[in-house]
């Protein structure tokens, strides 16, 4: 039977057979859960009862009318600010370590090391650093005579999100640096040298020659940063539990609490769908801005 088939038909059948397994896995572990999430967002369900009650748009209405939910979402933008700074520092260190700096390989390893550390271990380490009583940071401030600045960093509603944002910067900046460094090393050195010969300064060569050649990588890093900051969960969950009084709650910690603490899986699903929509909107704006800059 196979012998009677044309080569083109055999090729198409073979391709379909090879695609069956990955498509089945994608449908099982990605498409079906996503569709079920959307379905649950229109339901009232406590997570245990076999029966689900149709709620229509009530869950979405509750999400958009909840001041607590949107206050938590506003905290994510503090992380976004630190994420943009993280990208800027990663690019700056990549530019510096892409030069003939002595010992640059050792500096690369030192800056990348925080990224490979376990997230829970990092959280507990900084719990000791910023502890209000015996933390090393407050001890340093008191030793410098700056006792008034030695506050409870995780207990201050104004400071807690910035402290957590700083920790994310410390952990993930090395990853940004390595990605930018790989992109910079792919840019032909002759292009920059030609610009320097034409009279461009080092800064002008970087701004007008080097950076436009790594626009796609900058866009990728910003994409990863935005996704990470809008979905931040582990640090506030481990270090503060959303406290004090919800000051460090993020959209995702609020979603998890809604589902598993208050057993409102319908509203939690609506919050998840809302977060996905927000990510798409923010990424679309980011892509529009980076595309205009590259042009």
From TrEMBL:
<comment type="similarity">
    <text>Belongs to the binding-protein-dependent transport system permease family.</text>
</comment>
<dbReference type="GO" id="GO:0005886">
    <property type="term" value="C:plasma membrane"/>
</dbReference>
<dbReference type="InterPro" id="IPR035906">
    <property type="entry name" value="MetI-like_sf"/>
</dbReference>
<feature type="transmembrane region" description="Helical">
    <location>
        <begin position="77"/>
        <end position="97"/>
    </location>
</feature>
<keyword id="KW-0472">Membrane</keyword>
<dbReference type="Pfam" id="PF00528">
    <property type="entry name" value="BPD_transp_1"/>
</dbReference>
<feature type="transmembrane region" description="Helical">
    <location>
        <begin position="12"/>
        <end position="39"/>
    </location>
</feature>
<feature type="transmembrane region" description="Helical">
    <location>
        <begin position="265"/>
        <end position="285"/>
    </location>
</feature>
<dbReference type="GO" id="GO:0055085">
    <property type="term" value="P:transmembrane transport"/>
</dbReference>
<keyword id="KW-0812">Transmembrane</keyword>
<protein>
    <submittedName>
        <fullName>Sugar ABC transporter permease</fullName>
    </submittedName>
</protein>
<keyword id="KW-1133">Transmembrane helix</keyword>
<keyword id="KW-1003">Cell membrane</keyword>
<feature type="domain" description="ABC transmembrane type-1">
    <location>
        <begin position="72"/>
        <end position="286"/>
    </location>
</feature>
<feature type="transmembrane region" description="Helical">
    <location>
        <begin position="109"/>
        <end position="130"/>
    </location>
</feature>
<feature type="transmembrane region" description="Helical">
    <location>
        <begin position="163"/>
        <end position="183"/>
    </location>
</feature>
<dbReference type="InterPro" id="IPR000515">
    <property type="entry name" value="MetI-like"/>
</dbReference>
<keyword id="KW-0813">Transport</keyword>
<dbReference type="InterPro" id="IPR051393">
    <property type="entry name" value="ABC_transporter_permease"/>
</dbReference>
